[in-house]
Amino acid sequence: MDSEGRERTDSGFWDEWWQRYPLPPSINPTRRGLKNYPFRRFHEYFERIFYGHETKGMKLIEVGCAQSAFLPYFAKSFGFEVSGLDRSELGCARSRAILDREGVPGKIYCADFFALPGDLAGQFDVVFSHGVVEHFEETGMAVKAMARLLRPGGRMVTNIPNFTGILRAYQKFLDRRIYDVQVPLDREGLARAHWDAGLWVEECEYFLPISLEVLNVESWPRRWPYWVTVRTHGVISRIVWFVDERVAHLKPNRWTSPYVNCVARKTCR
Questions:
Q1: Which pTM does this prediction carry?
Q2: Superfamily grouping for domain 11-163+182-211+257-266
């Protein structure tokens, strides 16, 4: 466990993780169909939080960028100059491969964000992370370390899985190993970590009504219990997504929402 922030995972955990998966497909927010519903909703969210900001040419870095499909998406959809940082060499190599595949220029740095290369501090307008800070016992320390990348006035956009309440209990039942590497953070806990890091929290909210696909059973053998569970999660999620998108809007909430999103600003003081 890392002494800075007391991390619940290590490089070996993530290298083993990324070896299991092929490169993800590109994110296309205009693609129809229920399978793409989460990305359409993410796109709506990013359009809202970046509304009124001239993002073209601004610098965005994703912390924990291993095998990221978000970097080319941010470049193509908003015109960001993108970079990524991750300590997994395999994850970094796969991020570079995705950028090359998508024809998007970008820099990938293989480093620990607690020990940044000196030329990266204070260089970015946006710091984005997707499922990173919840792996640290001292979440505020992790957020503060990442905030060093921001220029004064820059914004941090943090996304984590909502492993509290029902979802946390269910994940513990499904796979104790995944349960153990997640620090349970609700909306208030994530916001407090950003305040503790010296950032001004603009908003912190639950996101999407449900997605059982955020739950993980990847350590299970690829036998019928695995396939039945995965497909059942998918069917239930898509039924709810259909209702939310086409029948009646369902309010995100602590109990069933798969994510928490936080937007915070580095003050100019």
A1: 0.91
A2: Vaccinia Virus protein VP39 (3.40.50.150)
